[in-house]
Amino acid sequence: MNRIKTNNNLLLSWFPYLVFFIASFIYFGFFVDYILFYQEKSSLFIFSSDFLFENLHQPGGFLIWLGKFLSTFFYYPLAGALIVSAILTLIVTTVSNIIRLLTGKNSIIVPFMIGAALFYLQTDYRFLIYNNLGLLLQLALFYVTIRYLTSLKRWIPVIIIPLWYFATGGFTWVFSILLTFYFVFDKEKKGWTKIVALWCLNLLIFYFSKEFLFFQTGETLLTFPFTELNTGSQSAFFLSVAGILSLLPVIARIKFSIPGKFRISDFVEGIITTTMVGIILISIGVQRFDKKTSQYFHVEKLFYQNKFDEVIAFNTTNPSTNSLTIFLNNIALCETDKLNDMLFSFPQSPDGKTLFLKWEMVGEILKRGGYFYYTIGMMNEAHRWAFENMVMKGHSPEGLKMLIRTELINGNYKVASKYITLLKKTAFYKKEAKAFEKLLFDDVAINADRELGEKRHNRLETDFFSITDDPYINIERILATDSLNRKAFEYKLAFMLLKKDYQGIANEIPKFTSLGFTILPVHIEEAAVALSVFNKGRLPYPGNIPINRNTQLRWEQYLTVFQQYGTDPKAAEPALRRQFGNTFWYYAFYR
Question: In the chain, fewer beta carbons within 10 Å around the N or the C end?
Answer without folding.
Answer: N
